[in-house]
């Protein structure tokens, strides 16, 4: 039994792309073009598929970074989650992810995704330390966002890890940081 709205045929096509077609330069170009589609479902599906299909980072990451600025809040989390698949190769997304994390006007899913995305990039996103610490220390922030920020800070390695150990020694187990 299907739950939720049925995706448009073009969105379903984007979702099936990585299964039906081998990764090719032409296919990656088509998916990147779909990130400009007027239908946000198609843009979101294209963003997800770029991460799933193992697209080369040099082609996909710039297109996904542009999708982080999408006006539809359903598209940004898809772009962020695809950037997870590129890990340190998504380093160029760091400044935009920091901006999304700092922007309290952003929706919660986008801010949480940005925080986690910075952790997935790892030590290459070291410039995010101040933003992550600010969220972690701000008790007015949502608990899950603070936990994700703590995890991401730990993933950046020292000195972020050292800050966590010194500032929150009893909280490490709760935040699942190393």
Termini separation (Å)? 41 Å
CATH architecture descriptor text of the largest domain: Alpha Horseshoe
Order of helices and strands: HHHHHHHHHHH
Structural class: mainly alpha
Poorly predicted regions: 172-178
Helix content: 55-70%
**Secondary structure: number of strands:** 0
Number of domains: 2
Question: Approximately how much beta-strand content do the residues carry?
Answer: under 5%
- Average predicted local confidence, pLDDT: 82
Question: If you consult CATH, what is the topology of the largest domain?
Answer: Leucine-rich Repeat Variant
Q: Strands, helices and their partners?
A:
Blueprint: H1 9-20, H2 25-34, H3 40-52, H4 57-67, H5 75-84, H6 94-102, H7 108-121, H8 129-137, H9 143-155, H10 160-167, H11 172-175
Helix pairs in contact: 1-3, 2-3, 3-5, 4-5, 5-7, 6-7, 7-9, 8-9, 9-10
Descriptive notes:
By secondary structure, this protein is mostly helical. The protein contains 11 helices and no strands. It folds into 2 domains: 10-85, Leucine-rich Repeat Variant (Alpha Horseshoe); 93-178, Alpha Horseshoe (Leucine-rich Repeat Variant), CATH 1.25.10. It is globular.
